[in-house]
Each structure stands twice: as structure tokens, then as C-alpha cells.
């Protein structure tokens, strides 16, 4: 099967082989695997891309190595070889059938560098590297795990993984793919998985001790929903290098209201404020911020090492937009810090019980959701070709989401990815933007967007004008 995407004078063609099931090499008895309340609300597919190119090794055996090691690692992570089902209580669980994950092998008609140039102009092109299971009408019919290995003409290859989020949070996903890589290199697992999720069962009777504003429905008096959902999604990104991150943190504490702040806290506060301003929210609009907090060490007793599942809860901050924008950055950072501090053992258990009683889903009206990959070691997965030259998500699940990714050779810089609808919204800020580094460099790891913000931390948008698009296309032809 062939699929094509035309991008100016370039056309990407992917020849896809027949997908197959990859069951675990060792069979086990069928069972029903418990999913806790922290898993129930995030039954969405997440897609992650890994790009590999070794100076000493081609891609001829890449698909074979990835496929054979998948069968081995599924012995340890056997729920991923099953399928979702709905219990009589109306909850999701895994029917551990052992039928296996879906695996597909594909071949591209271009080099990896050419694909990167095309994806820089149109990121949706990366979806061609992800196998999408046909015919699934809902998330229950969608496989828990699919894998596509795509070979490029230059000897590089990609591994695209689509996994249901109800099976793993970021840390668990990292440990799974790193274990998979260890299987490919005939190594023992560094962190064997702990699969028991019953430690997160709801209390009987339920004990809700805290208000859970993450589920609260906010009146959208600013009509932001219309702006976000009546326009086409176009993703954009910009980067903060270590020097800019230090300046940002210093700005957050310069008025003396706070004694310290982390990079995550400062960036989250900056993006939340800027988003409210860019969307032109009403001063009296109640704005909500949601972000995941890892509860592994906060739970009492702490989670066992290698816990495989979702050990995260949503921390929540609320504020009137006028208060966010008129107060110094330290005000917003303080809200983020208090939200983080609120996540305790009691809070997590209360959140589990809240879902047990209400079956509520978080409301996203006037809400920003921050997803941070900046502390996750996705870039360490080695299938025998060394560490990937790039790892990252393919697409964002919702228009309310902003994603923090590690960036740069030392991974100390951070890129922020969000939709351009926000960046170019009702009050477009200023920006200085240059493609020169991309166009003049042969290192595809530098193919990114650089944001230079001024001393007042102006938050900006970017775009490709006609001249830059022509230069990109000419550069692709030269490769």
C-alpha cells in the first residue's frame, strides 16, 4: 500500500507491508487485568516517534530486531498484548488474551533528511510513519499497542509507537521502551515491571477530602471554544536555551515574593499567562491550569520500583484572567507551586474516590493543559543502533494542550509546542524568528524553531513566508 503527501515539489511515499500480530514468545493463562481510576480518564492513544541513524550500521535488519524483541518484552509487559474491555461496572479493564501487538514494516522513498525538511513545513506528514489501525469505531476496538518501523533510503529508520495512555504514563512508557531496547540487545531488564495496580483501588467507603477543581466546569464567558475549534489546527514550537531559562526563573523571583522556582514552574506560568492574553480572554474569565504530578513518591507507602501504569494525578490552579495579567510573574508561579504542593497521599486517594463516586471527566473550558516530557528519558532507547537522534510525540491530543520537550544536544533546553491558532490569536505578540540555522546546517537535530524573546519576556508567534518556503524546498532538492 502506498500513501502520498504532496508538499510543494516534494512528495513522500510510504510503501506499507501487511501488518501482523506479535504475541509474547511465552504464553500465559488468560485473565482480566485491573485498571485503576487514574487510568480510566486517559484512555486515548499517544503516538511517539523515534528516529535512528548509525554511522556503522544500516537499516536492513532494523524491523526484524524491533519485532523479535517486541515479542520478548511482551512476556514481561503481557497486558499490552491483550485488548480493552468494559466490565459489568462500566469500567475499562484489559482482557489479557495474549493476541499480541500490531506490527507493520514500511519503506519510504526519501532520505531521513528530506523527510525532516518536508515535516518542518507540514508536521502532519509525520503521521505517515505511524500505523493507524483501520476500522476501529472506538477506543475499546483500538489495539493497546501498535508499532511501525519505516526504513529510509539513507540507511536511517524510524520506530513509531502508538499506545493507549490508560496503560502507561510517561515514566512507565519510558521504562517499557527502554526494556524493549534491552531485549533487542540481549540484556536483562534493568527495571522489571511491577504490574499490580490494585494498590490504587478506591476506598470502601469512599473518602473525598478535597475539592477537585480539575473536574469543575467553567463558564466560557470569553468564547474561547469558538476560536479554538472553528479553525484548523496548525502546530508551532519555539525553544528556550539554558540562558533564557535562567533569565526566566530570575524574573519570577525578582520581586522577592518567592525565594525560588523551578524551570517547569516558571515556564508553565509564562505560557498560561501568555495564552490567556493571546486568546483575548475576558478580565473576569476564570482560567484553569491543569498539569500532571507524579505521585509515585507521594503515595504512602511509595509505589514499588518499576510500577507500570499511571501514577500521575492532575494538579489544578485557578485564577481570574485579570489577576494573572496584572500581577507580576511571581503571582502565577505561586499558583503553580501551591498546586504542586497540594498533591499528597491524601489528595491522590481523594481523587481516586472522587472518580469512583462521580465518574466525572476533567472539564477543559477556559483551560490550559501542560504536558511535560522534559524530564523523561525517551532519548535513551537503544535497539542496537545507538540512542535515537530524535524522539518526540506525533501530534497533540487536544487544542487545550501545550507540550514541553527537551531540546538540544545536552537536552538542557526546552521547546514548547502548541497550536498556532493561539500564537496568532486576537492579540498577536512580537517575535524575532530565523530559519538560517536550519537551512545552513546538515545536522537534522538542529531542525527546529528558535524564539528570541526580549527583556520583558514577550511571548511570540511565528510563520513561514513565501520566501522561506521557497528556500526550504530548494534546500530539500539539494540534499
From TrEMBL:
Keyword Glycoprotein in the entry? The reply is no
Per the record, the domain of life is: Eukaryota
Q: Name one Pfam family in it.
A: Transferase
Any one GO molecular-function label of the UniProt entry: acyltransferase activity, transferring groups other than amino-acyl groups
Q: Which InterPro entries match?
A: CAT-like_dom_sf, Plant_Fungal_Acyltransferase
- What keywords would UniProt list here? Transferase
Looking up PANTHER family in the UniProt record yields:
FATTY ALCOHOL:CAFFEOYL-COA ACYLTRANSFERASE, TRICHOTHECENE 3-O-ACETYLTRANSFERASE
Per the record, the similarity remark reads: Belongs to the plant acyltransferase family.
Q: What is this protein called?
A: Omega-hydroxypalmitate O-feruloyl transferase
Amino acid at each position: 500500500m502506498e500513501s502520498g503527501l504532496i508538499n510543494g515539489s516534494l512528495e513522500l511515499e510510504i510503501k506499507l507491508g501487511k501488518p501482523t500480530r506479535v504475541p509474547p514468545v511465552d504464553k500465559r493463562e488468560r485473565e482480566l487485568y485491573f485498571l485503576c481510576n487514574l487510568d480510566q480518564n486517559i484512555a486515548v492513544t499517544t503516538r511517539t516517534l523515534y528516529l535512528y541513524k548509525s554511522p556503522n550500521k544500516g537499516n536492513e535488519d532494523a524491523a526484524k530486531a524491533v519485532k523479535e524483541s517486541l515479542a520478548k518484552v511482551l512476556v514481561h509487559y503481557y497486558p499490552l498484548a491483550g485488548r480493552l474491555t468494559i466490565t459489568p461496572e462500566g469500567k475499562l479493564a484489559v482482557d489479557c488474551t495474549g493476541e499480541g501487538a500490531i506490527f507493520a514494516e514500511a519503506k519510504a522513498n526519501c532520505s531521513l533528511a528530506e523527510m525532516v525538511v518536508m515535516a518542518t513545513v507540514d508536521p502532519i506528514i509525520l503521521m505517515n510513519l505511524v500505523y493507524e489501525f483501520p476500522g476501529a469505531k472506538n477506543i475499546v476496538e483500538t489495539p493497546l499497542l501498535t508499532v511501525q518501523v519505516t526504513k529510509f533510503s539513507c540507511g536511517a529508520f524510524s520506530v513509531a509507537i502508538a499506545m493507549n495512555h490508560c496503560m502507561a504514563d510517561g515514566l512507565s512508557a519510558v521504562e517499557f521502551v527502554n526494556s524493549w531496547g534491552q531485549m533487542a540487545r540481549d540484556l536483562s531488564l534493568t527495571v522489571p515491571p511491577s504490574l499490580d495496580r490494585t494498590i490504587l483501588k478506591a476506598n470502601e467507603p469512599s473518602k473525598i477530602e478535597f475539592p477537585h477543581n480539575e473536574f469543575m466546569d467553567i463558564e466560557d464567558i470569553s468564547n474561547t471554544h469558538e476560536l479554538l475549534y472553528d479553525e484548523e489546527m496548525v502546530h508551532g514550537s519555539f525553544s528556550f536555551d539554558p540562558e533564557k531559562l535562567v533569565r526566566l526563573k530570575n524574573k519570577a523571583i525578582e520581586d522577592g515574593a518567592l525565594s525560588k522556582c523551578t524551570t517547569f514552574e516558571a515556564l508553565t506560568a509564562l505560557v498560561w499567562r501568555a495564552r490567556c492574553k493571546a486568546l483575548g480572554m475576558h478580565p473576569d474569565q476564570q482560567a484553569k491550569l491543569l498539569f500532571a504530578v507524579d505521585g509515585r513518591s507521594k503515595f504512602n507507602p511509595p509505589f514499588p520500583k518499576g510500577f507500570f501504569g499511571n501514577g500521575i494525578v492532575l494538579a489544578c490552579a485557578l485564577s481570574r484572567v485579570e489577576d494573572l495579567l496584572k500581577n507580576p510573574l511571581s503571582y502565577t508561579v505561586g499558583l503553580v507551586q501551591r498546586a504542586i504542593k497540594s498533591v499528597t497521599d491524601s489528595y491522590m486517594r481523594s481523587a481516586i474516590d472522587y472518580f469512583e463516586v462521580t465518574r466525572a471527566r476533567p472539564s477543559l473550558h477556559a483551560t490550559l493543559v501542560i504536558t511535560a516530557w522534559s524530564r523523561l528519558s525517551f532519548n535513551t532507547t537503544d535497539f542496537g543502533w545507538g540512542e535515537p537522534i530524535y524522539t518526540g510525540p506525533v501530534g497533540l491530543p487536544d487544542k487545550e494542550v501545550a507540550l514541553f520537550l527537551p531540546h538540544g544536544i545536552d537536552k538542557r533546553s526546552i521547546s514548547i509546542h502548541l497550536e498556532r491558532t493561539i500564537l496568532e490569536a486576537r492579540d498577536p505578540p512580537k517575535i524575532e524568528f530565523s530559519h538560517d540555522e536550519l537551512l545552513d546546517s546538515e545536522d537534522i537535530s538542529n531542525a527546529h524553531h528558535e524564539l528570541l524573546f526580549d527583556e520583558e519576556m514577550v511571548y511570540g508567534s511565528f510563520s513561514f513566508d513565501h520566501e522561506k518556503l521557497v528556500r526550504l524546498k530548494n534546500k530539500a532538492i539539494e540534499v
